[in-house]
Amino acid sequence: MAPAAVAVRFASLADAEAIGRIHVESWRAAYARLLPADFLAGLSIAQRQAAWRRQLTAGESAAPVVVVTEGGTVTGFACVSASRDEDASAGTGELQSLYLDPAMWGRGLGRRLHASALAVLREGGCLRATLWVLEGNARARRFYERAGWAEEGAAKVDRIADGPLLREVRYVRALTAP
To answer: Any idea where the N-acetyltransferase domain is (predicted)?
Structure first.
C-alpha cells in the first residue's frame, strides 16, 4: 500500500475541531513532566476548539495558520505573525505555535510544517523570526536548534488563563534562506 499523501496548506474554519484536539493532546504529551498533571487533565478540547473557531473566523490577517495533513487528515498546525515582542525590530516575524498530533511525532511532518510556516513569514516580508519555548522542553528545543534556531538570551514568565507560571526562552533565526 502506498503511503498517504502529505500536504501543507492554510487552515480553514473546518479545521478548528482537529486543531483544537491536537493543541490539547500535544500539550498533554509534550508537557507531561513540565506542568502539573491536574492542569493538563483540566484542559478542555471543546474550549480550545471554540478558541480556534474564533481565531480562524478572524481570517489570515490576524495570524496565518497552516496545517499539515496526511491522507487528508489534519495532523498538525502552526501559527505565525509579526513579532509580538516589544523589543522586536521591523521585519521580525514570530512562530507563535507549532504542534503535531503526538501519534505523528518523529515522522518528518513537523519539519514540513515548520518549513511552510517560515515560508509564510518570508513571503510576508520578514527577514528574521523569533519563537518562545518552555525552558524545560528539551524535545522542542532540540527540534528548533536542528532547524537553525538559536537561543537568544531573553526569557519571560507567562501564565495561560489560570494555569501555572511558564518560564519561556526566546529563540531567533534568520529567514533569508530556506
So the answer is: 6-176
